[in-house]
Structure formats: structure tokens, C-alpha cells
From TrEMBL:
Signal peptide: none annotated. Residues 3-108 form the VOC domain. It comes from Actinomadura violacea. InterPro entries: Glyas_Bleomycin-R_OHBP_Dase, Glyas_Fos-R_dOase_dom, VOC_core. This is VOC domain-containing protein.
Length: 116
């Protein structure tokens, strides 16, 4: 039976992004060997959205209060790349990873499957 999910962020500077995930976001980790860190994520959800384009995957962090979360992250030196936008289904923003990648974060307004 399926007992979890493994998410991968491809990065131009994986070491910097791993340090960010560990030290700034405070995600617990295990070392799979030679400094290859794998992080524990909070509870997660999975959705399948229709597309007219090529199939793709996305990864979003979720929070209860996006403004408080972004303020806290900014105090830790995290750059907010995309300011908060109201999408109807939630409040969406994005933060900058040390590698230059963007990591979306949102405060959902929809029912939460992660709490089932």
C-alpha cells in the first residue's frame, strides 16, 4: 500500500537549497549518505488539474496565515519573490530559494484533504 510521497526540487545549487530547507524553514531531515539530505514534510495533499498544455508537476507549501508566515520568513532573510495575490481558492505568494528557484506558498481557503 502507498505510505508516503517523495517530492523532488531540482536545483542549480542543491547544497544551498538543502541548507535553506534545514536551517531557515526548519524541516527535519535524514542523511541518505554523503550529505544527501531528505526532508520530512508537513502533511500533504495531491490534486489532479486539467491542462491543455504538456503535463507537469508543481509543489506548493501551505500555511495557516500567509502574512504572518511571510513576515517570519523575511525576518530570517528569505526574499518574497511574488507578493500575496488573492486567487479565490486561497492567498498565493512565492519565496526565493538560494539557488534562484521559486517556491510557491499559499494560505488555502478550500477544504483541506490533509486533515482527513
Amino acid at each position: 500500500m502507498i505510505n508516503g510521497a517523495h517530492v523532488i526540487i531540482y536545483s542549480r545549487d542543491a547544497a544551498a537549497d538543502r541548507a535553506f530547507l534545514r536551517d531557515v524553514l526548519g524541516l527535519p531531515d535524514v542523511d541518505a549518505g554523503h550529505g544527501w539530505l531528505i526532508f520530512k514534510l508537513p502533511p500533504a495533499e495531491l490534486a489532479a488539474h486539467p491542462t491543455e498544455g504538456a503535463p507537469r508537476h508543481e509543489f506548493y507549501l501551505m500555511c495557516d496565515d500567509i502574512h504572518a508566515t511571510l513576515d517570519d520568513l523575511a525576518e530570517r532573510g528569505v526574499q518574497v519573490d511574488v507578493p500575496v495575490r488573492d486567487q479565490g481558492w486561497g492567498l498565493l505568494a512565492a519565496i526565493r530559494l538560494p539557488s534562484g528557484g521559486e517556491l510557491p506558498i499559499y494560505q488555502p481557503r478550500h477544504p483541506l484533504a490533509k486533515d482527513l
